[in-house]
Amino acid sequence: MVSSFLNGRSDTFDVITLVKILYHSRFSAPKAKRQSQTPNTQKHRPDETNMARYKLQQWAIGRVEGLVDDEARELVSPGSTLRLAKEMTWDFATSFLFHRVAEEVRKKSPTCMRLLRAVAIPAEKRNRARPSHLAPGDIPAFEEDSSLSGSPAHTTSTPAQSSSSSESPLLLIILTAFMMLLNARNLRFTVFQKLMGVWLFANSDAQGVYDVLGRMRLSVSYATVLEVLKGLSASAQAIIRTSALRRVFMFAYDNIKRQRRVYDGELGERDMMDSGTASAYVLVEDCDPARTFDVHVLEEARAKQQRKELNVALLQKRIDWQGLHDVMTVHVASHLIQEVPCLSPWQEHLNRRLRVDLAKHRMRDGRCTEVYPLASSEHDEGSTRGNRDVIDDLMLKQLGLEKDEAAKVLTIVTGDQSTIEKICHLKKLLDSYDISTLACVNELLGRKVKNVKRPDYYPAQALVFDTLRVEIIDCWR
Question: Are 370 and 283 in contact (CB under 8 A)?
Fold first, then answer.
C-alpha cells in the first residue's frame, strides 16, 4: 500500500514532494466518469469534498488568504513607509517613485505580488523570464524581471527588445491595481490617490472626473485635492523660508493666462482673459553667499569706477586665445558631424575633449538643482509696475523677509526677455533686435517659425549657439 502510494520511490524527499504526491494521487479524488449503461442515480461515487485533493486545495487557498491578509495589514498600518503619517510633504511628493514602491511591495508583500503577477502575466512568460539563480518560491527583483517589460499585447518580445522595468507598463498596471485594492481595504491609505488627484488638478480636469475615478479608487475627491495642495504649499513655503535665511537663491517667473468663458452671457458680456504670474524658487549652490550676494561688495566695486578704464585692448589681453581656438575647433567639428552622419563615430571623442581636456569651470558631478514652486499671484508681470508687485510678493509675503532685510540682499531674477525688459527698462535695446534675421536662422535650422510679428523668446545663450551653428553650416555648404 505504502509502496504503491510512493510509486516505488524509496529515496528521501522533502515536504513539498510529499504534498505533491498526496495531491496528485489517484486515491485523492473521485475517478473520472466513464460511459456505462448504469444510470447515474444508481452509481455510488465518493464525495469529492471528503477526499484529500479537495481538502489540500482548500487548505492551501485558506493559507494563501491568511498570508495576503497579513501582508496587506502590514502595508496599510500607520507605521508603513507607503502610508502618509499625517499630511503629504513636498519632499515626499518629489521623491515618490514607482520603482521604489515596487521594491517595497516585493519585500513586504511577496504573496500579493506573486498573485498579481500571475493574473497579469501568462505562466509561460513568467517561467521564461525567471532568473536561473532564484529558488522556486522566490520572486525576482523588478530590475531583473524581464517579464514585466513590454505590453500585454506583445508577450513574445525578448528582454532585449523590451523597455526597462522601471518604465514597464505591466509594472505600472500591477502596482496601480494593488494601490486601488489597498485603498479599498483602508480608506486612509491614499498616497497614490492623492498624487493622482494632484495630477488631475494640474491638467485642469473637470470635477466630474474626480467623482468617477474616486469610485474606482484611483483618486481622492476634489475637496481633498485642494487640502493636499494647501499642505504641499505650506511644506514648500517652510522649506524656502528656512533656506532664504542663507541668502543663496534666485527667482524665475513668467506670466500665466487663462480664458474665462461666459456661457450664459447677457448683453455686453464676453469672455475674459485672466492674467497672473507663476514663479519658482531656485537654490544657488557652489558659491560664497557672503560675497556673491552682498550689496556692499557691489557698491564698493562701483565706487572704484574701474569700468572707466575698461577698453577693447584690455579685454583682448584677458582672452585666452589658444583655449578659445581649441574650443571653437571642437564646436565647428561637432556641427559638421551633426550634418554628416558618416562622421558620427568621432562625436564621442569631441565630447570627451570638450568636457575633460578643455573644461575650466566644470559643474560638480552629481549636482542636482533644487527647485521649489511658489504660489501663483494675480499680478500681471507684463508691465513694469506688475513686475514690482511680483517681486514684492515673492520677497516680502512668500519668503517672509522684512523690507530692510530684503534691501540688504542681491537677488537674481530671471525670466523671458519680456520680463527682463520690464525689470531693467531696456525696451529700446530689445527693440533693436532684427526679428527677420532670427526667423531666417530658425528656418535654416529646420524649425517651425511663428509670424515675424510674434517672435518666440529665446535665452541669450541659445541665440549665440544658433547663430554660430548657422554660420558654420553655411561655410561648409
Answer: yes
Helix ranges (DSSP H) in 340-382: 347-352
Within 222-305, strands assigned E span 249-260, 272-283
CB 381 within 8 A of CB 253: yes
Question: pLDDT tens for residues 371-415?
Answer: 888 888 888 777 777 777 888 888 888 888 888 777 766 777 887
* Amino acid, res. 126: R
- Residue labelled with grid coordinates 521604489: 100
| pTM (2 d.p.) | 0.59
- pLDDT for 45-58, tens place per residue? 677 788 888 888 88
List residues bridging with 255 in a β-sheet: 277
Q: Where are the alpha helices (DSSP H) in 340-434?
A: 347-352, 384-392, 403-407, 417-424, 427-431
User: What strands, in cross-sheet order, belong to the sheet with 412-414?
Assistant: 371-373, 272-283, 249-260, 412-414
CA distances 309 to 134, 149, 175, 306, 315, Å, are 74, 65, 67, 6, 11
Concatenating the DSSP letter of every residue in 139-153 gives: PPPGGG-GGGSS-GG
The three three-digit cell numbers of residue 34, written as one number: 466513464
Look at residue 66 in the predicted model and tell me its pLDDT: 92
**Residue 260 DSSP class:** E
In 3D, which of 412, 94, 429 has the Cα closest to residue 253?
A: 412
